[in-house]
Design brief:
Elements (H helix, E strand, L loop, with lengths): L12 H8 L3 E6 L2 E13 L27 E6 L3 E8 L6 E12 L1 H7 L30 H8 L17 E4 L15 E4 L13 E4 L17
Antiparallel strand pairs: 1-2, 1-6, 2-5, 2-8, 3-4, 4-5, 7-8
The structure holds a DNA duplex (13 and 13 nucleotides).
DNA sequence: GCACCGATGTGCT
DNA sequence: GCACATCGGTGCC
């Protein structure tokens, strides 16, 4: 029913980001609906933020960030993962909020099916008793930006989708919409440095719900040098 | 829990 | 080439 109004996103990303905690991202596909209540986000700025994809101007990949607010910017990274952002500020000002983690509140069986990990090395033949894959704890289903995309089946085809339109397969609902909405009063928000970012590591633009088990574990940036 | 490491595509310093 | 807005496995404490 009610979706987040577009002008909610017509603000700086570091202002929008904490307000997104508790909001609900839902994706409806032919397989069904999966919805996630957001518990962790990160804000990115444009020309002033060396960690932002839009720091060096517009390219084919980041063009959506330069468009109007309320749209999904999905990118592919590390050769195998997708991450989803919400675009903020008017067209021409490239800002976004990365959706890092959430709690699955609808469609958990479907989310779980999508999160079956690839087995390390499928030996050709003759492994006696194949160990069944361990069950994923519910809190890990969307714990981390790439896991969140996997649980919701978000990939390149959702890049540029309008999150404020009821006609979209992918959309955002305001906080307190979910069944048994347990009051914003209980929600304590904490802030700290962003995850896995080498540049501007001191900017506290990561926001999360204090004490929530679905918040991803903090991994400081690690250099890949041998 | 922590550290290390490999997988893997894409857009550039 | 190389650096990534990452994850899952293994090994160890």
């Amino acid at each position: 029913m009610d979706l987040i109004a577009r002008d909610f996103f017509d603000r700086p990303s570091e202002v929008v980001a904490p307000d997104l905690l508790g909001c609900v991202l839902e994706h409806e596909t032919a397989d069904g609906l999966v919805a996630v209540e957001l518990t962790e986000v990160e804000a990115y700025a444009g020309e002033t933020d060396p960690a932002s994809h839009s720091y060096r101007g517009m390219t084919g990949r980041n063009a959506v960030m330069f468009g109007p607010p309320g749209y999904a910017y999905v990118y592919f990274t590390y050769g195998m993962h997708f991450c989803v952002n919400v675009v903020c500020m008017p067209a021409g000002i490239p800002r976004a909020v990365l959706l890092r983690a959430g709690r699955v509140i609808a469609g958990e069986p479907l989310a779980r099916r999508r999160r079956v990990p690839r087995r390390p090395e499928e030996s050709p033949e003759g492994r006696p008793a194949e160990r069944p894959p361990a069950a994923i704890p519910a809190r890990d289903l969307a714990r981390g930006p790439a896991r969140l995309c996997q649980a919701l089946a978000i990939d390149r085809t959702q890049n540029g989708v309008d999150l404020c339109s009821a006609a979209s397969e992918l959309r955002l609902r305001p906080a307190g919409t979910s069944a048994g909405a347990d009051a914003d009063a209980d929600r304590v928000i904490e802030a700290g440095p962003r995850v896995g970012v080498s540049a501007a590591a001191d900017v506290p633009w990561r926001f999360w719900v204090a004490g929530d088990p679905t918040v991803s574990v903090y991994r400081p940036y690690k250099s890949r040098a041998r």
